[in-house]
Design goal:
Distance between the termini: 48 Å
Order of helices and strands: HEEEEEEEEEEEEEEEE
Helix content: under 10%
Strand content: over 45%
Shape: globular
Number of domains: 1
Structural class: mainly beta
Length: about 280
């Protein structure tokens, strides 16, 4: 019974971590104007994107955090809805709550009262997720459950400064931490690897609008093991997802199939509305 309960909890946690791994960031700006899903999306920025050195594609943000497909601006928000996944249908909002010269904080609020905080680093090669889609000390909170994870051996950029058709890159990390469930602690360890391939540009339509996007294929594997009251519970996630990235907006759609804890699924996540200060 305890093994089944623990495996169910980790299935929900791991699914939410993975499916929201890609989100944008920001710098200090005036109060933004929200873009409803029923209107044609427009980005309101305090300054226009600047051309990268060497005549590359336009980027949004400043210094090391400047990125073509991942706008870095304080207070930016993205509203997403996911359907078909192993955790069921759910919605969440990503908000860029803090931006620094060398990184930023992303906070995700889910409609099931779960909150996730993540830290990202801005490196010369691009934006780097310091944990499963985020933090060096990411946390998940829901009811009487608390999950705290610390990453190590992080390698590779999650979002390079520029993405062109044919580009390939990899991001890997190891992690460990503690799950506390109603006062009972469980140790958790694991690893994650994502292989990215830029397939080319195409038009994509989601509730937030129609965009010209870069289509990126992501093959991911996440292995996690928990020791809960003397019971070892291993869980593996593997899947192939396609993401659509839009310059100056971020990612607007993700769709794909995978296997989680022996169960196959097909899922789609779409941008409902967004705010770029």
């Amino acid at each position: 019974m305890e093994k089944r309960k623990t495996k169910t909890i980790f299935s929900l946690v791991l699914t939410i971590i993975f499916l929201t791994a890609c989100s944008p960031a920001a710098t200090e700006a005036p109060p933004p104007s929200v873009i409803p899903a029923t209107e044609e999306p427009q980005v309101t920025a305090t300054e226009p994107p600047v051309a990268s050195e060497g005549g590359g594609m336009p980027v949004t943000g400043e210094g090391l955090c400047a990125n073509a497909y991942y706008p870095v601006r304080q207070g930016a928000t993205w509203d997403y809805k996911s359907t078909g996944g192993p955790a069921g249908d759910y919605s969440y909002t990503d908000t860029l709550t803090s931006v620094r010269g060398d990184g930023f904080t992303l906070t995700s609020q889910f409609d099931n009262d779960l909150t996730r905080t993540q830290e990202w680093a801005c490196e010369p090669e691009g934006l780097v997720a310091l944990q499963l889609g985020g933090a060096a000390a990411a946390s998940l909170n829901m009811g009487d459950m608390q999950l705290d994870l610390t990453a190590n051996n992080v390698s590779g950029a999650t979002f390079p400064n520029e993405i062109n058709a044919g580009d390939e890159w990899q991001h890997t990390l190891e992690f460990g931490g503690e799950l506390n469930l109603a006062g009972t602690a469980a140790e958790a360890t694991g690893s994650a690897q994502s292989n990215f391939s830029a397939l080319g540009e195409e038009s994509v339509t989601v509730p937030a609008g129609t965009f010209d996007a870069m289509k990126v294929q992501v093959d991911s594997t996440i292995d996690i093991s928990a020791s809960f009251q003397g019971v070892e519970v291993p869980v593996t996630f593997s899947g192939r997802y396609t993401y659509w990235f839009v310059q100056g907006v971020g990612w607007v759609k993700a769709g794909g199939a995978g296997e989680f804890a022996g169960t196959s699924f097909t899922e789609t996540t779409e941008l409902q509305s967004y705010t770029i200060p």
